[in-house]
Specification:
The protein has helices at residues 3-14, 24-35, 97-113, 134-139, 141-146, 199-217, 255-276, 295-307, 325-331, 358-373, and strands at 42-47, 50-55, 63-69, 119-125, 150-157, 164-167, 170-173, 175-184, 188-189, 224-233, 239-240, 243-252, 279-283, 287-288, 291-293, 312-315, 334-340. The protein is an alpha+beta fold and 376 residues long. The strands form 4 sheets. It has an 8-stranded mixed sheet, sandwiched between helices. Strands 8, 10, 12, 13 and 14 form a 5-stranded antiparallel sheet that branches. Strands 7-15 form a two-stranded antiparallel ribbon. The chain binds ligand L5K734KM. GO terms for molecular function: metal ion binding; N-acetyldiaminopimelate deacetylase activity.
């Protein structure tokens, strides 16, 4: 498959970003492409809006899994793309899942006509950005039936150059928990604040207090994040808001800090209830466990990458990003790595423009890596 074909696939997918578990057009596109491949060695199953493709090896003693996530983000695209901008105005592939899928299809295309010795499993997984497709997929009969012995995945990294690959043994990504807080008070006329109970004021105070948790309650030698991405409340400038909602995410490197942060959120919320005479409910949404790379497999992969012409291997630090791929790694030995795509704008930025040259490079690297793995 040449690089223009890969770029075209990426651009097609870029135009149809969809929410988690609603990746209908994406699934249809992927299935159409997979159906067009030689199918002598392939078996295909769908699971929800995801797809599992098994390449049956000549001997098939082991199975190596490669996972690509397929959902988009609720971001209004602001890239300079003229011809392949998102056709879903409120959604964008701003986390590189269009790259992840294209690379998986590129590698799959090779193995559809070059039968490996062992089996390969390509996993197109929904809902990585939330509520999380990995855990229910792992529990599904479809996955159990083809469960791999080893598994890996990549994530694009705007901060690295094309040709750089970065990862580390052990902890790579943080534990995460979503955070949704609903506040209910008493609405009223803007001119009579003493008769009402203003949830805009209560929510504002809570957001400020939440920012003290990492600074004052998390061990400075550990790491934590409390980010509030959304604050909503009120209906009109001269009406006191009866309700407000705060949406955010909590991150920690250790499980103990996650527990501690949640205890502090709950304590601060109790204070708001008393102080502002309102009712507050907390919902932690979906939680992802850490991404923990298998040490022996990273030693093997880093050695392999370092020997590969045109790729620089970087031993990176852990990051506070989250990934439900961590659930695969809890059960199956494997690893995740960053793939450099050299964008001036980062992940979850409406202007993210990853360099497409990273796609053919990753396809060659992984095709070669899997050829060696599945033949050894
Ligand atoms: C790689 C990446 O950006 N992953 C997302 C995962 C989201 C987890 C969950 N929805 C949350 O917000 O806690 C990330 O934001 O790190």
């Amino acid at each position: 498959m040449n690089k223009e074909q890969l770029f075209q696939i990426r651009r097609d997918l870029h135009q149809i970003p969809e929410p988690g578990f609603a990746e209908f057009k994406t699934q249809a596109y992927l299935l159409r492409y997979i159906d067009s491949l030689p199918n002598e060695y392939l078996d295909v199953q769908t699971w929800e809006t995801g797809i599992l493709v098994k390449v049956n090896g000549k001997e098939g003693n082991r199975t190596y899994g490669y996972r690509a996530d397929i959902d988009g983000l609720p971001i209004v695209e602001q890239t300079s793309y003229q011809t392949f901008r998102s056709s879903h105005p409120e959604f964008m592939h701003a986390c590189g899942h269009d790259f992840h899928m294209t690379i998986a299809l590129g590698v799959l295309t090779h193995f559809a006509s070059h039968q490996p010795t062992d089996n390969l499993l390509f996993i197109f997984q929904p809902a990585e950005e939330g509520p999380g497709g990995a855990l229910p997929l792992l529990q599904s009969e479809e996955f159990k039936h083809w469960r791999p012995d080893e598994i890996f995945a990549l994530h694009i990294a705007p901060e690295y150059k094309v040709g750089q690959v970065a990862t580390k043994p052990g902890l790579l990504f943080a534990n995460t928990s979503e955070l949704f807080i609903d506040l209910k008070g008493k609405g009223g006329h803007a001119a009579y604040p003493h008769t009402a109970n203003d949830m805009v004021v209560a929510a504002s105070s809570l957001v400020t207090q939440l920012q003290t948790i990492v600074a004052r309650n998390v061990d400075p030698l550990d790491s934590g994040v409390v980010t509030i991405g959304v604050i909503k409340g009120g209906t009109k400038q001269n009406i006191i808001a009866e309700t407000a909602r705060i949406e955010g995410t909590i991150r920690s490197l250790s499980i103990e800090s996650m527990q501690r942060i949640k205890e502090r959120v709950e304590a601060l919320v109790k204070g708001i209830e008393v102080g502002y005479e309102c009712e507050v409910t907390i919902d932690y949404g979906s939680n992802y466990c850490q991404v923990y790379n298998d040490e022996a497999l990273i030693a093997d992969f880093s050695h392999y990458v370092s020997e590969w012409d045109g790729i620089e291997y970087i031993h990176c630090q852990e990051a506070m990003t989250g990934e439900d791929f961590g659930y695969f790694l809890e059960q199956i030995p494997g690893f995740m790595f960053w793939l450099g795509v050299d964008s001036a704008y980062g992940l979850h930025d409406a202007r993210l423009e990853p360099n497409e040259e990273a796609i053919p490079l990753a396809v060659s690297l992984l095709t070669d890596y899997l050829t060696k793995k599945a033949a050894s």
